[in-house]
Structure to design on (913 residues):
């Protein structure tokens, strides 16, 4: 058990103008699950790219010892040949190919270029069994959920005789059930002697599975904690990550709740693709001024679909129901009308749906409300720049100017640009869909502070999140959704992880 | 990794500035180098007044269509049908003018409207039915070419009435002749005065913008670049203006082209419509979710292309003085090439009007120069193809390096 399988010594990697890794040391014992944590930009992914040969030997300083020997990987296949397999955050699966085809892509079971299908399918079946998937090998990737796709990635790694499995944020887009299944799988692999490195922001998961935790901060190693010699709490890890104790992860707030702003009644929606399947059933909810309302639920419960169908029918069809704002019926049948009615929807997928990444901060900030900085269709540059600068300083967007392209911003700053865009439409109710997904703890705190401030200004906030602690920490009231229905409404006093899960489970039994 | 600096307006060094804007300066330098090259190898024929006039007349329609095509490409689409629209508009203008004897004053707007309808007919499928523009306009290219044969019955129609020919062969009359200081060399005073006034205004506006930028703390390009760029543009413009003045003055087409270039530059850089087209090309889903009617925007981008193609079609027909079923074959490729040489991105969201215009002139000068040199059409095509590839490679190379 105390065999060191991997040791990285004095790794230094510089990009033009930035030292991404500065003399990092990293030691992994054979057969353990080793967690690598740190804020975004701390250098976790860069370190793993050095290890896997994405950055070839020679482009960094330092040594890599693997399996007792010094190694110099110049391509990814060099490291893969030795059993080091990395599964990146963005899954590398081809959506329109089958599971079997994806697993053996580039590594086909073939003779003279002719694929041996029966063998491919049989091998795939074996691998799928190992990761606990019961899908047919011929199923297309696009037809299975993200959780299962993640498992296919792992099956693919297994097909390559993996010894050291590296997972970069494997559970970032998974719901709790899928995450648990994945973590259980990792623990099972551990009993079979496989070594894993897991990069994650979800500290509760790390506590569950990790044997050791290495913390990186600003491109350097802070410390390595042994989870078996002491009980490591989340606060202990956070302290290492941010360099200071964060007493409270959620800024305090005095709720001052006013009249009802948004009220949605009998909201029924059919599925976007499977057009005869009803997806949302009689959804009812309200959001009041100055109130932060949460929607909890598992992946696929219909939370995002509720928000998007409400926001100008962006999702679904045959949408029926009543929407009122301050008691008056409003028309939300198109996005411009929904915006006029006082709604704003901050998407969960800021890169695909939130930002025009090749445009700069200024252009993204004003996109939803260009009219406000234009006269007769002509944009007033000064006015626009002023608006963007104001939001940049108000939301503390870190960039060298408002002319920086948003593609170059960190996740937290990108999210703030999306928020700026919607704040500039001056909405009464903001729907925030996973507002802190994939952003680091420091930036999360800032986002929570912004939410609090908006509530204090009298806006209504509807917040969708898969992280229950986040909902419990920020919301005044929480709706629980399951299978397209609202199954519970919990006040702040009633809400807890247990009560939310209980509501979900109970409703599952009923239907 | 991004350096998270919150300090505003780090003054970029001249080297950085050049690196970030190498595409634009590179394009301008390329045009000047190509012009000088052909001026040299053609023994000075290229810059002869009559040839400059020809260059303008020959390329005006490519430039005019490139304006619309740039918007289409920035929006994330492509239009392969413009060559066929040119032919069809030529055909119906011939029928209206020659066969029916309608006056040009009615025919010209009617043709623009028909062009708009042709663009709309394609835009509908692209915008509302979500059929890829490549397929829709490929269909349009075949349909409109077929329609041209149908309406012409396979035979050319011509000649055209004088008033219509003025579209492409007319010149601005010399109403400033009394100012002329040297009537033996200068034939047309208006051309000279117009060009001097334009250059003067450009320098004034440039300096004014820099001042305003300074007051508001916005980045300016380094003064050296501004000065050199202005000097080059002014020198080229004054030279061409002088040459034109010694011949027949400013062609009507040049005026139309200049007005359109100015208009479309304004639309792309200053108007809300332009901004939205760029945003849509960059990320159509995010733009739609921002409350912008992306379908309507796409639709009108195609309508606009149809109108500009119709204008180009009339100019060409008037110039050839005959409507033939084979007019405009392959024009779409020249127009698209001009946009890509000018730095537009095939994936949408990126591209400038001035780039497309310079791209069109690079193609035009090469066509013209190689023709003067007597290079066959075969090698001309080959060389143009390589220039297109080189220009786009230059883009990709810079992007990967940066």
């Amino acid at each position: 058990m105390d065999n060191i399988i991997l040791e990285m010594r004095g790794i230094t990697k510089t990009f033009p103008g930035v030292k991404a890794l500065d003399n990092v040391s990293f030691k992994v014992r054979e057969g353990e699950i080793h967690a690598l944590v740190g804020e975004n930009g701390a250098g976790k992914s860069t370190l793993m790219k050095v290890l896997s040969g994405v950055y070839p030997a020679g482009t960094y300083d330092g040594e890599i010892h693997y399996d007792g020997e010094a190694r110099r990987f110049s391509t990814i296949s060099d490291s893969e040949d030795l059993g080091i397999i990395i599964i990146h955050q963005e899954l590398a699966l081809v959506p329109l190919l089958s599971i079997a085809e994806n697993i053996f892509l580039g590594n086909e079971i073939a003779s003279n270029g002719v694929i041996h299908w029966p063998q491919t399918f049989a091998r795939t079946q074996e691998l799928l069994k190992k990761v606990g998937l019961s899908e047919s090998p011929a199923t297309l990737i696009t037809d299975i959920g993200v959780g299962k796709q993640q498992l296919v990635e792992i099956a693919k790694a297994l097909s390559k005789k993996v010894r050291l499995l590296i997972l970069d944020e494997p559970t970032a887009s998974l719901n709790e059930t899928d995450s648990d299944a994945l973590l259980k799988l990792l623990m099972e692999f551990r009993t079979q002697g496989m070594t894993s490195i897991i990069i994650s922001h979800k500290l509760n998961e790390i506590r569950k599975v990790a044997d050791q935790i290495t913390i990186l901060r600003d491109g350097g190693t802070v410390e390595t904690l042994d989870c078996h010699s002491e009980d490591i709490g989340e606060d202990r890890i956070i302290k290492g990550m941010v360099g200071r104790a964060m007493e409270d992860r959620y800024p305090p707030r005095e709720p001052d709740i006013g009249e009802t702003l948004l009220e949605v009644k009998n909201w029924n929606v059919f599925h976007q693709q499977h057009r005869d399947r009803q997806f949302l059933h009689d959804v009812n909810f309200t959001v009041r001024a100055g109130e932060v309302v949460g929607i909890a639920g598992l992946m696929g419960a219909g939370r995002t679909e509720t928000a998007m169908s409400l926001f100008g029918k962006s999702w679904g069809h045959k949408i029926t129901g009543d929407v009122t704002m301050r008691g008056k019926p409003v028309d939300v049948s198109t996005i411009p009308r929904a915006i006029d009615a006082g709604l704003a929807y901050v998407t969960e997928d800021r890169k695909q749906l939130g930002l025009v990444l090749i445009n700069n901060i200024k252009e993204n900030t004003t996109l939803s409300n260009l009219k406000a900085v234009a006269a007769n269709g002509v944009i007033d540059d000064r006015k626009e720049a002023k608006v963007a600068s104001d939001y940049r300083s108000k939301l503390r967007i870190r960039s060298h100017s408002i002319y920086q392209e948003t593609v170059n911003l960190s996740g937290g700053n990108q999210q703030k640009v999306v928020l700026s865009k919607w704040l500039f439409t001056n909405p009464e109710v903001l729907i925030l869909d996973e507002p802190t997904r994939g952003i680091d703890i420091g930036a999360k705190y800032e986002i929570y502070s912004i939410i609090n401030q908006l509530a204090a200004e009298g806006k209504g906030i509807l917040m969708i999140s898969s992280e229950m602690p986040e909902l419990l920490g920020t919301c005044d009231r929480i709706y629980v959704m399951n299978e397209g229905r609202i199954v519970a409404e919990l006040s702040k006093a009633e809400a807890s992880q247990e009560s939310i899960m209980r509501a979900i489970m109970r409703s599952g039994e009923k239907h | 990794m991004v350096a998270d600096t919150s300090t505003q307006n780090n003054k970029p060094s001249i080297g950085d500035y050049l690196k970030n804007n190498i595409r634009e300066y590179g394009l301008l330098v390329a045009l000047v180098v190509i012009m000088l090259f052909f001026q040299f190898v053609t023994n000075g024929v290229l810059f002869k007044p009559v040839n400059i006039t020809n260059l303008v007349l020959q390329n005006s329609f490519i430039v005019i269509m490139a304006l619309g095509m740039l918007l289409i490409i920035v929006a994330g689409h492509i239009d392969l049908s413009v060559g066929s629209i040119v032919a069809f508009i030529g055909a119906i203008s011939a029928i209206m003018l020659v066969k029916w004897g309608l006056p040009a004053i009615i025919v010209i707007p009617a043709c623009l409207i028909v062009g708009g309808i042709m663009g709309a007919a394609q835009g509908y499928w692209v915008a509302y039915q979500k059929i890829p523009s490549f397929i829709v306009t490929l269909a349009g290219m075949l349909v409109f070419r077929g329609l041209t044969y149908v309406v012409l019955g396979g035979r050319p129609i011509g000649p055209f009435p004088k008033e219509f020919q003025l579209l492409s062969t007319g010149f601005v009359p010399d109403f400033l002749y009394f100012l002329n200081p040297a009537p033996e060399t200068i034939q047309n005073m208006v051309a000279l005065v117009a060009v001097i006034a334009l250059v003067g205004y450009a320098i004034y506006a440039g300096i004014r913008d820099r001042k305003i930028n300074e007051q508001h703390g916005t980045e300016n390009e380094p003064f050296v670049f501004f000065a050199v760029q202005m000097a080059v543009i002014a020198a080229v413009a004054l030279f061409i203006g002088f040459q034109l003045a010694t011949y027949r003055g400013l062609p009507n087409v040049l005026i139309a082209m200049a007005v359109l270039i100015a208009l479309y530059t304004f639309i792309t850089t200053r108007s809300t419509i332009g901004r939205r087209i760029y945003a849509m090309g960059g990320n159509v889903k995010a733009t739609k979710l921002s409350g912008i009617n992306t379908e309507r925007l796409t639709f009108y981008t195609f309508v606009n292309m149809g109108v500009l193609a119709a204008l180009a079609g009339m100019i060409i027909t008037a110039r050839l003085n005959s409507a033939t079923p084979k007019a405009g074959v392959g024009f779409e490729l020249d127009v698209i090439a001009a946009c890509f040489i000018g730095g537009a991105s095939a994936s949408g969201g990126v591209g400038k009007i001035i780039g497309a215009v310079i791209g069109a002139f690079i193609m035009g000068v090469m066509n013209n120069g190689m023709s003067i040199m007597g290079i066959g059409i075969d090698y001309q095509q080959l060389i143009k193809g390589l220039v297109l590839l080189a220009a786009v490679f230059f883009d990709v190379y810079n992007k990967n390096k940066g």
